[in-house]
Amino acid sequence: MGKLGKKARKFAKKNLQSVEKRNRKLKPFFKKKFAKKNGRREAGDKEEVKKVEKQPKKICPVEDFQDIPIDAVFGKDDDEVLHDGDSDSDGYLDEDSAAVEGAEGDEMSVQSKESMSELKKQRRKLAKLNEKLVDEAGSDIMKRRVLSGSVLSTCCDLVDEKQSVQALIRLLNWYRAACYYGHEPSGTAKPDIVYDIEDGETFAKVLIFVLQKADHTFRSILGLSDSNIKEKILKLKNNPKWDSLKPLVKSFLRSTLHLVKHAADSEIIVFAVTQLRVSIVLFAAFPDLLKKLIKISIHLWVTGEHTLSKQAFLILKDISMVFNSECFDTCLVNMYKAYLHECDFPTANSERLLFLRDFLVELCSQDVQKSYTKASVSITQLAKLLKMALITKNKEAVEKIHSGQYTNCVDLWVNFIAANVQDCDLKTLLYTIVQVINGVAQLIIGPRYLLLRVKCIQWLNHLSRTSGIFIPIASLVWDMLEYKTTNDGEKQEQKKHDAVSTVKLPKNWLKSQNFQEQCIFSVIEVLAAHFAQWSFHISFPELATIPIMRLKYFYEKSNMEGLKRVVKRFIEQVESNIEFVQRKRDDATFSPNDQKSADLFMQHEKQNTNASYTQYYQSIINKAPGTKKKKK
Amino acid sequence: MGKSRRKQKVIPPPQLPPDVPEEDIEFSDEDLKYVEQNTEYARFVSRIDTAAIDKQCGGRVKTVEDKYEEERSKKKTHQEEKGNGEILVDPVDVLPIKTLDGKLQYRTEAKKSKLAEANTDEAEADILEDENILNKSQRRAKAKKSKKEAKKQEKELPNEIVQEEETPQAAVLAEVKEELSAEETIENKQNRLAELGMLLLSDPEANIKSLKEMLDLCKDKNTKIVKLGLLSLLAVFKDIIPGYRIRLPTEKELEMKVSKEVKKTRFYESTLLKAYKSYLQKLIILEKLPVYNQIATRCMCTLLDAVPNFNYRDNLLTAVVGNISSPDEVVRRLCCSTVRSLFSNEGKHGGELTVQAVRLIAAQVKAHNCQLHPNAIEVFMSIRFDEDIGKPNKEEEHNKKYKKNNKRKNQEEQNQVQENERKKSKKDMMSKIRDEVSADYKGVTYEPDAKERRKMQTETLSAVFETYFRVLRNTMYTTGESSEENPISNPGSFGAHPLLAPCLDGLAKFTQQLDLDYIGDLMNYLKKLASSSSVSNNSKQKNARLLTVSERLRCCLVAFKVMRSNLNALNVDLQDFFVQLYNLILEYRPGRDSGVVLAESLKIMLCDDRHQDMQKAAAFVKRLATFALCFGCAESMSALVTLKILLQKNVKCRNLLENDAGGGSVSGSIAKYQPYATDPNLSGALATVLWELSLLSKHYHPAISTMAATISDMNTSQSQTFLSAVTPQQAFADFSLVKESFELKNESRKLNNKRKRDSLPEEARDVPEMDMEKLSKKLKENFSILQDIKEDERVRMEALQSEKKRPLKKQSNVVKKKLKNLTPKKKAF
Known about the structure:
The complex is a heterodimer of chains A (632) and B (829).
Chain A: H1 2-47, H2 54-58, H3 75-87, H4 94-102, H5 104-114, H6 117-137, E1 143-147, H7 149-162, H8 165-179, E2 193-197, H9 200-222, H10 230-235, H11 240-262, H12 266-278, H13 287-303, H14 306-322, H15 325-344, H16 350-366, H17 368-392, H18 395-402, H19 404-420, H20 427-443, H21 450-467, H22 474-481, H23 507-510, H24 513-534, H25 540-557, H26 561-586, H27 595-600, H28 603-607, H29 612-623, H30 625-631
Parallel strand pairs in A: 1-2
Helix pairs in contact in A: 3-13, 5-6, 7-8, 7-9, 8-9, 8-11, 9-11, 11-12, 11-13, 12-14, 13-14, 13-15, 14-15, 14-16, 15-16, 15-19, 16-19, 17-18, 17-19, 17-20, 19-20, 19-21, 20-21, 21-24, 22-24, 22-25, 24-26, 24-29, 25-26, 26-29
Chain B: H1 2-10, H2 29-37, H3 44-47, H4 50-73, H5 91-94, H6 102-111, H7 114-133, H8 138-156, H9 160-171, H10 173-179, H11 182-202, H12 204-207, H13 210-217, H14 223-240, H15 251-255, H16 260-287, H17 293-306, H18 313-322, H19 329-344, H20 352-367, H21 375-378, H22 395-409, H23 411-433, H24 435-444, H25 450-479, H26 500-510, H27 516-530, H28 549-565, H29 575-587, H30 595-607, H31 614-630, H32 633-649, H33 692-696, H34 702-712, H35 728-735, H36 772-803, H37 813-828
Helix pairs in contact in B: 1-6, 8-11, 9-10, 11-13, 11-14, 13-14, 14-17, 16-17, 17-18, 17-19, 18-20, 20-25, 22-23, 23-24, 25-26, 25-27, 26-28, 27-28, 28-29, 28-30, 30-32, 30-35, 31-32, 32-34, 32-35
C-alpha cells in the first residue's frame, strides 16, 4: 500500500502538474480576457457618454459587490481620459520660431518700416546684441538665446501697444522657456536653439506679463470681446487670423499648463490658474489640452490648499458650464472619484472633506438633470452594497458600510438632494437615500458607532428639513439613551469627534462618562432638530409622546445630575410646546383628512419665533458642532 | 474485451442450479487456454491464503446450499432460526453482475460464496447511497471510496512489491530504521486501516476478527491515525451492523448442541458486539477529550442516526444528549440534528428512543437549572404527537391515514413508512405461520403495538411539558421577587433566559396536547411573565435578568394561542394581556426587539379578536397611530394595517377621524385623552382625534403616506368593501429594509431645472487678490532655485561626459569595486 500510495501520489502529481500548468496558462488568459472585456465595455460606454452608468450595471451579480469599492466604479476610464492629454509632446513653436529666427533680420526691417524709427533702432541694437550672444555661445553648434530684461521689456511694449504677432511669438517662446525652466534638460528638446533666461527678474516678468496679457492680446488680435462665448471661438475657425494665431494660443496654453502642473509654489499656481481661467474658452479648440486641464485641475482641487482648491474648482466649474455635456460628465465623474479617493485616507481631514463636498454639490447643482442620473446610479450602488450587508451580515460587507467612502458618498448625495429638492422633483432619489440611511442605521448597532448613527439621524433631519417631508427618526435615538457606562472611567479629554470619517470610536472611549454625556447631548440635539421642524404641526403632541416618555424614563433612572438637568430642561420645553399646540388644536375645526387646513394650521405662529421652546431648539441646534458647520 | 467476456462466463448466472458443487464445475477449454496464456493473471493463486479459504469455504458452501434449500421450503412455512434471518434476502434477485475487473472476480469465484458477494454488493450500494444522503458523512464516504480505489490498485499490483519492501526491511533493519520516518509509519498504518476496512466491508463474516485490529490501531498515539481509525470503524459498523438487536446466548443456550452455522453466526455476532462495545467505550472516553470531541461526537451521532435499533443505543443516546448543549457549535448542531432525526423517524426505533431522549433532555434541563443552549429544547419541535393512537379499534386505519398525511409532508418519511409497511406485512405473515416465532420476533423487532406507543407518547408529552413548565417556573423565579436574593447568579453564557423562547414556541405548538387542567396554571405563569418588567419596575439593577420586550410579547402570544386552540373553552380573562400589549408597544425598540413578534402579536391579539370593547379598541387605535409616527416603515406599516383593521371592525371608533367640536358624543367616562396611561380602558382615547394621520400623510415612504390618507378618508368614502387582505406580519415583512429592492425607477423625466450656464462673468469676483510684488519675488526665488538645479544638472552632465574619459571616483562602494575590476579595461579604451 505504501508503494501504492507513493505511486498514486506520483500519478496525482503528474496529473496535477498538467492541470496546474494549464491553470497557469489559463489564468492570465482569463484575466486578460476579462480585463479586455471590461475595458472594451467601458470604451463602448464611453462612446455613449454614460460613464457613470457603468458602475452598478456592471456589478449587478450580487456576489461581486464586495470586491468593488465605491469609487472604483469609474476606475479605468479615469486613466484613459486623463492620459490622453499627455500623448502629444509639446515643443516650441516650431515653424513660427524658425520663421522668427530665419527671418530675424528681415523681420526686424519689416517691422522697422512699420514701427517707429526709435523703436527700430532699439530693436536693431538688441538684435545685434542677441546675435553677439548667440555667436558667443555658438561655439558648440547650439544656439543660445538668452533673454535679458531689456529685450523683454521691448517685446512687452511691442505686444502691449501694437499687438505685434512677431513679438508675441518671441514672447511666447520665452514664456515657454520660463515655464519649462529647470524641467527640460538643456539640449534634449532642440539642440540648435536654446532659450535661456538671464536672471530672476526677467523670469518673473515674462511669466507675469504673459499670463496677464496673453488672453487679452489674443482676443484683441482676433477681434473678440472679453466674453466667454464658446460659439464665437468656434466660429473663429473660419477666421483667417485664427490659423496664424492657433499655434500661438496652443503654445501659451500648453506652457501655462506645464507651469501649473510643475510649479512648486502654490501662490504661483494660484496666479497661473486664476489667469488661465479667463482664457478657458480658448481650450475649445484643443480638446486634448482641455482633458489635460481637467486632470490637472482635479488634482489641484483635491490636493491643493484652500484658495488653490477653490480656484481649481472654479476652472472645473467653468469648463463644465462652457463646454458640452460630455465635459460636464468628465468633470463630475472625475471629481467624484477624486473625492471618494480622498475619503479613503484614514487621516483625511473632515473639514477638508466637507469643503470638497460642498464644491462637488455645487457642481452637481449646475446641471441637476445630468447629476440626477449620476446620483441615482451611485445611490443604487450604495443601496446594493447595503442590501448585501443586510442580508449576509458578513463582516466584510458591513465593514464596507462603515468605510469613509460609503459614508462620505451618502453625505454627498444627501447634500445634493437637500440643495436641489425644492427646485426639482427628486422624490425617488430622496426616498431611496432615506431608505439607505435607515438601513445603515439599522445595520450598525452598538455604542462604538455612535457617531455614524448620529450622522445618519442628522442626514435624515437635514433631508426632512429641506424637503418638508416627514421622516421619523425617533426610533433611531433610543439606543443611544441606553448606552451604559461604568461610571468609573475618569473624564477623558474631550476630543473632537464630529468627523464623518471617524466612524468607529476607540473602545476605551466608551467607558468614560464623557461618552455618555456625548450620547445624551447628541440625542437631545437630533431630537431638538426634529421637533423644531414640526413644532408647529398639528400632530406635534403625538410626535413627541413616545420620545418624551423615553426621556422621562431615562431621567428617572439616571444618576448623573448634570445630564439629568439637561434632559429635564428639554422635557419641560417640549412639554410646553405640546401644551401650546394642544391648546391651539382644540380650537381647530377641521378633521385630520383635511390636509390643506392642517398645513395652514399655526402658520401664523410659525413666523413668530418668540416662543421659548423655539428659541430653545434653536440654541441647541446652534450649539451642536455638526450643524454649525452646515449652517456655514 | 476478453476479460469481460470471460467474466460473464465464469460467473454462474443466477438461474444456474446452485447445488452444483464447486469441484464439479467444468472449465471450458477456452478458459483453460486463457489461464495458460495469461499466467500472470493467475499468479495470485499462489498467494491465496488457503487456510482462510478453507475455513471459509467449508462453512460457506454449506450455507449456500442451506440457503437454497430453505428458499424452496420457505413457502412451506418453515421458519429458520433467527441467525439466518439476515441472509434471507433472495440472492436470485439481489445478485448483480460484478463490474470489478476480471481478476478480482476470479478470486471471489474461487473463495467467496455468492452470499458474501451479495453482501458486499449491498454494502457497496449502501455506501453509494450514503454518499448521496448523508451530507455529514460525505467526507468520510469519500475517504472510504478513495481507500477502496487504493485497495483496488493494490490488488492489481502483485504483492511482490510489498514483499520487496518488507524483506529488505527485515534484512537491513538496523540501517533503515532511522530512515524510516514517522511519516511512513503513519502512512503504513493508514493503509492498513484502509485494507482492513475494505476486507470487512467486502466480507464481514470472514474478516470479523479484523475489527479487533482496527480497534487496536485506534489506540495509536497519533491523533490523525486515531481519527482515521474511528472514522473507518464508523463506516464499517454502519454497514455491517444488522437490522436486529443481537442477544448474546445464555449459558444454557451455549451448552446446547447446535449446528456449525449457528455456532458460526454466534461467533460472528458476539465478536461484532464485543467490538462494537469497545468501540463505543472508546468513543465515550475520547469524546471528553477536546481533541477528539468533534470526531467522537460525529461518530456517535452517525451511529445513532443509522442504527438506532441496535444494542447499546441507550449509551449512545446518553452521550449524544449530553452534548446537545455543547458550547462547540459543530458538536451541538450535530447532536441536535441527530436527536431531531430520531424524533422525526420514529419508525426506526419504535419511539422508545424518543421517550428516552426527551427524558434525558428534561433531566439535563433540570440539572443545569435551565441554563442551556436554546437548541436543547428546540429539538422538541420535531416531535410529532399522534392523537389517534388512543383509539385501539381503528388503530390500524388511523395509523395509515396519519402516515399518509405525513407522506406528503416529507420525502424521507415516505421511505420510512414504506419500509415500515413492508416489515409489517412480513410480520403479519410470520405471525400467521407461527405464534412462537412471532413472539420471538417481537422480542427483537422494533414495532411496538398501539398500547405501548400510546404509553410512550404520554410519557414523552409529560416529559416535554415538565421541561416547559420547569423553564417557565425558573424564569419566573429568576425575574420575580426572588431575584433580589441571589442577584449574583450569573446569567450564563447563553443569555438571561436562553430556554424561554423555544419553550414558548413549543408551548404554542403543542398547546393541543396540553391537559386542560394545566391551562390555568400556564395562563398564570404567562401573565406573570408578561408583566414581569413593566416601566414602573424599580429593580433596575437586575436589568439583565428581566425579560425582554419580545419575550414578553411572546408570552402574550402564547396565551392567546392556547386560548384559541382550546376554542376559548376556558373562561380565562385575557384583559391583562391586552394591558401588557398596550404598554409593550411603547417599549418596543427596533434593533433590540423582534419586530416580527410584534407584528404577530398585533395580528393575533388585535386583528383576530372578534368582539372588542370600544374603549379598548380606540385606545389601541390611538396608540398605534402614535407608534407609527416614531418608527421605521416596517413597524409603521404593520401598525397602520392593524389600525385600519380595527377601525373597520369598530365603526364607532371612526369618530376618532372626525374632529367633533366638544369631544363628540362617545367620549366615555374620561373626558381627556391620557397619552401616558398604562391601561387602555382608562386612556380616554375616544376623546381625541387621530391627528397623527395628518403628519403621516407627509411620510417619506409613499406607501405609508397613501395608507394614512386612505385611513383618514375612511369615514367619508362609503365603500366598505376594501377589507384589506394584508396582515400586519405581511406588512412588516414587505416593508422591512431587507426586502427593499432599492431599484430606482429610471424614468427619464425632464427636471424643470435647466442648466444655468450663462452666469460666467460675475464669477470673476472670485479671483483672489494677488500681491504682485510678492508674486514676482516668489517667482524670482523660484527661478534661482531652478537655476541652481539646472546648474547642478549641467555640472553633473559634464561630469558624466568627463567620466567617459576617466573613471569616476565618487561612487558608492559596490560600484567602486565593480569599477575597479573594470578599470584596466576602461583604461585600455
